[in-house]
Amino acid sequence: MYVAWAAFLFVLASAAVLTYAAFRYKQILSITGYFIKAATVYILVGEEDARLAAVAAGKGATLNDRLRMKEFIATLSGSFRSQKGKRWEKQIERSNYLSKELDNGGALSQEAFEAREALRLRNDVYLRALKSGDAGVFLRRYPQLFGREAEKAVASGDHPDQIAEDIVADAQATAKAARRPAAGA
Fold first, then answer.
1. Is residue 122 included in any domain, yes or no?
2. 149 belongs to a structural domain
3. What is the pLDDT along the chain (185 residues), one digit of tens a residue?
4. Number of domains in the chain
5. Is 8:37 a contact under the CB 8 Å cutoff?
6. Which of 44, 46, 57, 143 is least surrounded by CB atoms within 10 angstroms?
7. Containing domain of residue 58, as a range?
8. Is residue 168 part of a domain?
9. Structural domain contains residue 12
10. DSSP assignment string, 58-109
């Protein structure tokens, strides 16, 4: 009788561990995907909110995951360096900056909490997407940066979205103006 119960408990515990492992694996993949999309938006067009989103995702990741994130940034930066001309200098600078920001962190680190708080204050939509692992928030906002058209543009040495930097600058200027207190208030 005890053997049957022990076997049952072993199977139950094994199922619980496997379920948790599957959940954790899915969570790690969604956060990594979110980081990749946020980093891509920041590096290509310079959206400050996307930088905060990438930093919040990266700072909250484990050391191994942060190393993989930095490898992604290095690969992206390397592809820009291989292009001819100085057209990609801003993107290379942003890549280097973002990579340095990922040097410290950890799921429960002070840096991770501060990064998420900065994102909350700046862009609550991106924070909710981070919490749910929804990388699609960047795909919906910048469809021109992802997919086949962007791959073709980067392969030919063109910027994947000529007007994206202007769109981001306008959106950030509008957001900054909205955050300023009204005169006489």
1. yes
2. yes
3. 788 887 777 777 777 777 766 555 555 556 788 888 999 999 988 899 999 999 988 888 888 888 888 999 998 888 888 876 677 888 889 999 999 988 877 666 788 888 889 889 989 899 898 888 888 888 888 887 776 656 665 566 555 544 455 555 555 565 566 556 655 44
4. 1
5. no
6. 143
7. 21-153
8. no
9. no
10. HHTS-HHHHHHHHHHHHHHHHHHHTSSSSTTHHHHHHHHHHHHHTSS--TT-
